[in-house]
Amino acid sequence: QVHVVESGGGLAQPGGSLRLSCTLSGSELNYYSIGWFRQAPGKEREGVSCSGSADGSTYYADSVEGRFTISRDNRKHTVYLQMNSLVPEDTAKYYCQATARMGPGNYWGQGTQVTVSE
pLDDT digits over 95-114, tens only? Predict the structure, then answer.
């Protein structure tokens, strides 16, 4: 059975950095595209970044372009989201979604909280 677990959230000051991890178990990471989403209180969940499984493509939302970097280590079954130059608007719960390249597999983690504040 496939599971996705996020980690690395916490409290950061404006201008600071955090690195989130998304670890997949129960299958091979290279079978999946991995997306990072976030949801702030009272707001809809929004896409932040995505790492494609087959061609190494990446995607970033305009709000994080140039500040966040997504990378994957298939041997460690982990996708990372390096978040630099954090701003209070980045405060949200961050979720990881694994989408199978073939077949219906679609898995969400429980999320990790990121808070950017003085």
Answer: 999 999 888 889 999 999 99
Supply angle C-alpha 25, 82, 1, rounded to 5.
Answer: 10
How confident is the model at residue 47, as a pLDDT? 98
Q: Is 53 exposed, middle or buried (0-12, 13-18, 19+ CB in 10 A)?
A: buried
Strands 92-100 and 32-39 come out as: antiparallel
**46-104 confidence digits (pLDDT tens):** 999 999 877 779 999 999 999 999 999 999 999 999 999 999 999 999 999 999 988 88
Give which of 53, 70, 71 is closest to 61, Cα–Cα. 70
For residues 44 and 68, what is the distance between their CA atoms, to the nearest angstrom? 20
Residues 72, 22: Cα–Cα separation, whole Å: 9
* Bridge-based pairing state of the strands 92-100 and 112-116: antiparallel
Which residues lie closer than 8 Å to 78 by C-beta, 6 or more apart?
A: 21, 22, 23, 24, 29, 72
CA 69/CA 90 separation, integer angstroms: 14
